Amino acid sequence: MSGSFEQRLGDLGEQRIQREVLQPRYGGTEGFGDDSAFLAKVDTPSELVATTDSCPTPVVNILREPDLFHAGWLLATINLSDLAAAGAEPLGLVVNYTLPKTTTVREFERLLDGVDACCHEHGTKVAGGDIRDGAGQLTATAIGRCAPGSRLRRSGAKAGDRLLLVGSPGYLWAAALLETGRATLPAAARDEIWQRACRPTAQLKAGQLLAGYARAAMDVSDGLFATVRTLGEANGLGAAVTGEFELDEPLAEVAAQCGLRPFDLAQTWGDWGLVAVVRTEDVKVVEKTLRAESVAVQEIGTLTEDKRLTEGTAPWRGIAQERFSASSWHGGELSTLLTEVLGV
Amino acid sequence: MSGSFEQRLGDLGEQRIQREVLQPRYGGTEGFGDDSAFLAKVDTPSELVATTDSCPTPVVNILREPDLFHAGWLLATINLSDLAAAGAEPLGLVVNYTLPKTTTVREFERLLDGVDACCHEHGTKVAGGDIRDGAGQLTATAIGRCAPGSRLRRSGAKAGDRLLLVGSPGYLWAAALLETGRATLPAAARDEIWQRACRPTAQLKAGQLLAGYARAAMDVSDGLFATVRTLGEANGLGAAVTGEFELDEPLAEVAAQCGLRPFDLAQTWGDWGLVAVVRTEDVKVVEKTLRAESVAVQEIGTLTEDKRLTEGTAPWRGIAQERFSASSWHGGELSTLLTEVLGV
């Protein structure tokens, strides 16, 4: 391939892309090149689930020089995160790339590197896919299995159940605060935050541990407020959050420098945590089980008969992004969004 | 909903689209609204397959007033057709729509009607999906299961194996010839061709019947030539086609009026047939089995040690469309393509 990385996909054409880029990478995958990708052989009774999501422009690609690696990584994570919310084990990912003809082989390889690295990190793989030319769009579908009866849903919760936030929120938006000069940290801490922001992971292990314990679950794709509100609506309930949250140490420092409460940063998105709904009597054992597997978890509140969303004694004024609206993140500018979202 | 069909998705916003359009239609589907869609419970050992494809602009939407119903129908068919080529039984479809904010509710409902009608026709359903605003793109993923060991692949064929064309080719391009005035037929015949062109079906039943009999299979998505060439390449073989084909009666008439041989029209795409590779000794029983289920099938040639593609005694000069190239259909104009493809 040496010397050909600067070639454009439109110069190669579909057959050479297949032969020179995809075959060397995926040729060993059973089913490569067939009309349908092979996911897995399943021998035990299973509930099968699937989820599909397209990748927005990664925030990190706005903060620094864009790299399709990050888009590829994010594409896999956002889909695997939905499997995590179902408590499912992933069987594979199928990808669907629409790319401009002007995309270079180097850029394309970075995209594939990102998706493959993320899949590897999560113990799964790209099983197959499709590619076509057009305005850029990256879509994937993740397929998974659950043991019968263990599948987590948004519904199934009762008033009084506790809300657990699984994962470590705040890395992406802390990175944004650091990159835009709103906070400063020593280089090592800043680098670590940047790396975490570039490589968010799905809570697959946590989801599988929660299956059977949790009454409901949902991933945090549009921020904590939107997630809790949706979980409440799915169960005809409201929620009371405490507004307290212990951020990872360097994030707490970033928040403090920006005059933000830890809970403000904990409400942001991009870190692909889960909100799990757990019976009061199960909270301790769930927390212990997750922490034993090095999964971060904190109780953040309670589902309530009262359909309002409250933080402490006041209405919870959270952040929510909505598609097909003027405030849609997908149409937003980082500079204004940081102010809108975090008031800084 | 009365009176609101002319509203635009951008005026509704994501939440109202969910509540007013998607919930009434899909609210009864288990898993609707969850992070992951529920596909099926599988109780017997299975090989699971998946395929993903985006929908090009349907040719019928260029020939007459565009209707998103046709795009929805086609989106489902092209994905189910890949399952058919694997001999799989469909478990469900997950859809991923990127639509402009200016899309009206009426247009969106037509799209959903088309996908749902096609899924129903094929005995499957939309299990879930995602929607976002942006430049229009319709993508879907179909997931299916095969009995262990029965899954059809492109590879597995031997020289001397016979090529069977399953399905009735030529409807889409006959419609194009009729609509552009290159041929004329009585209204009833013309209507029937138009209907078939608008509602191509995937050969799911045929694929499942072929599983276990056929040595290899592939669907005809880019024309017969490209399909046979790819099947040959996947097996290190060439092919000798006879160049003879018996079209359905009204299509034969269209071909004749245009000075085309039946085999010319049989080489076009858009009708989602399969090419199945079958051992010589199995041809009769396969043909009988398929015809007993009202599936059209004709032998078209033989795979050969000689890697060339021949038609009769001459090289086969077929039609192939290739993505990421100047001749890509997705960038083509119907008026020039009819001439390029069929020479008329």
UniProtKB/TrEMBL annotation, chains A, B:
<dbReference type="InterPro" id="IPR036921">
    <property type="entry name" value="PurM-like_N_sf"/>
</dbReference>
<keyword id="KW-0418">Kinase</keyword>
<feature type="binding site">
    <location>
        <position position="130"/>
    </location>
    <ligand>
        <name>Mg(2+) 1</name>
    </ligand>
</feature>
<keyword id="KW-0479">Metal-binding</keyword>
<keyword id="KW-0067">ATP-binding</keyword>
<feature type="binding site">
    <location>
        <position position="52"/>
    </location>
    <ligand>
        <name>Mg(2+) 1</name>
    </ligand>
</feature>
<protein>
    <recommendedName>
        <fullName>Thiamine-monophosphate kinase</fullName>
        <ecNumber>2.7.4.16</ecNumber>
    </recommendedName>
</protein>
<feature type="binding site">
    <location>
        <position position="82"/>
    </location>
    <ligand>
        <name>Mg(2+) 2</name>
    </ligand>
</feature>
<keyword id="KW-0460">Magnesium</keyword>
<dbReference type="InterPro" id="IPR016188">
    <property type="entry name" value="PurM-like_N"/>
</dbReference>
<feature type="binding site">
    <location>
        <position position="82"/>
    </location>
    <ligand>
        <name>Mg(2+) 3</name>
    </ligand>
</feature>
<dbReference type="GO" id="GO:0000287">
    <property type="term" value="F:magnesium ion binding"/>
</dbReference>
<comment type="pathway">
    <text>Cofactor biosynthesis; thiamine diphosphate biosynthesis; thiamine diphosphate from thiamine phosphate: step 1/1.</text>
</comment>
<feature type="domain" description="PurM-like C-terminal">
    <location>
        <begin position="158"/>
        <end position="310"/>
    </location>
</feature>
<dbReference type="InterPro" id="IPR036676">
    <property type="entry name" value="PurM-like_C_sf"/>
</dbReference>
<dbReference type="GO" id="GO:0009228">
    <property type="term" value="P:thiamine biosynthetic process"/>
</dbReference>
<feature type="binding site">
    <location>
        <position position="53"/>
    </location>
    <ligand>
        <name>Mg(2+) 2</name>
    </ligand>
</feature>
<dbReference type="GO" id="GO:0005524">
    <property type="term" value="F:ATP binding"/>
</dbReference>
<dbReference type="Pfam" id="PF00586">
    <property type="entry name" value="AIRS"/>
</dbReference>
<feature type="binding site">
    <location>
        <position position="51"/>
    </location>
    <ligand>
        <name>Mg(2+) 4</name>
    </ligand>
</feature>
<dbReference type="GO" id="GO:0009229">
    <property type="term" value="P:thiamine diphosphate biosynthetic process"/>
</dbReference>
<feature type="binding site">
    <location>
        <position position="35"/>
    </location>
    <ligand>
        <name>Mg(2+) 3</name>
    </ligand>
</feature>
<feature type="binding site">
    <location>
        <begin position="129"/>
        <end position="130"/>
    </location>
    <ligand>
        <name>ATP</name>
    </ligand>
</feature>
<dbReference type="Pfam" id="PF02769">
    <property type="entry name" value="AIRS_C"/>
</dbReference>
<keyword id="KW-0784">Thiamine biosynthesis</keyword>
<feature type="binding site">
    <location>
        <position position="222"/>
    </location>
    <ligand>
        <name>Mg(2+) 5</name>
    </ligand>
</feature>
<dbReference type="InterPro" id="IPR006283">
    <property type="entry name" value="ThiL-like"/>
</dbReference>
<feature type="binding site">
    <location>
        <position position="82"/>
    </location>
    <ligand>
        <name>Mg(2+) 4</name>
    </ligand>
</feature>
<dbReference type="InterPro" id="IPR010918">
    <property type="entry name" value="PurM-like_C_dom"/>
</dbReference>
<keyword id="KW-0808">Transferase</keyword>
<feature type="binding site">
    <location>
        <position position="35"/>
    </location>
    <ligand>
        <name>Mg(2+) 4</name>
    </ligand>
</feature>
<feature type="binding site">
    <location>
        <position position="221"/>
    </location>
    <ligand>
        <name>ATP</name>
    </ligand>
</feature>
<feature type="binding site">
    <location>
        <position position="154"/>
    </location>
    <ligand>
        <name>ATP</name>
    </ligand>
</feature>
<comment type="function">
    <text>Catalyzes the ATP-dependent phosphorylation of thiamine-monophosphate (TMP) to form thiamine-pyrophosphate (TPP), the active form of vitamin B1.</text>
</comment>
<dbReference type="GO" id="GO:0009030">
    <property type="term" value="F:thiamine-phosphate kinase activity"/>
</dbReference>
<comment type="similarity">
    <text>Belongs to the thiamine-monophosphate kinase family.</text>
</comment>
<keyword id="KW-0547">Nucleotide-binding</keyword>
<feature type="binding site">
    <location>
        <position position="219"/>
    </location>
    <ligand>
        <name>Mg(2+) 3</name>
    </ligand>
</feature>
<feature type="binding site">
    <location>
        <position position="53"/>
    </location>
    <ligand>
        <name>Mg(2+) 1</name>
    </ligand>
</feature>
<feature type="domain" description="PurM-like N-terminal">
    <location>
        <begin position="33"/>
        <end position="145"/>
    </location>
</feature>
